[in-house]
Amino acid sequence: MTDLPTALNLPPVDPLPPETQRYFDICVEKLGFVPNVLRAYAFDIDKLNAFTAMYNDLMLAPSGLSKLEREMVAVAVSAENRCFYCLVAHGAAVRQLSGDPALGEMIAMNYRVAPIDARQRAMLDFAVTITRASATIEAADRQSLRDHGLSDRDIFDLASVAGFFNMTNRVASAIAMAPNPEYHGQAR
User: Fold this and answer.
1) Taking the model in full, what pTM does it have?
2) What would the mean pLDDT of 79-84 be, rounded to a whole number?
């Protein structure tokens, strides 16, 4: 890996610790490549481990929110923040998980026109409000989510996913993180 995934000159630790190399090997086995977001953090293994632990917990652990819904939140938040890396990477995940080659782009451009159900629309409205003005969230906003079938745990998970992507969008944009070219053609 000689090419760097960001505009910063932060080469990965060399050699990678064995457990990190195993994680990267699993990525290659499952995806065909190591996502550049992981490569970007590989200059500091503690930061990489913290990032992957939080990502894996929020995006892959059991939740009342489906994996597709969490990816939809990632795309809606990333669209608000205009984060190229996350729009490309998570748009591909939406395509793959939904089986719909247009859904990721629809959510990226304007989730309000996407063919999603009322529950998902309420979730994306909430995630976008968090992104635009989190201090304006009120009890009625959380109640609206409850009215659409979300539990309090689901609301916590939704807020956490939106918050995580607001942070990662800002980091990715600030360091010009480049999406892996492979994402562009996935699930088309």
Assistant:
1) 0.96
2) 98
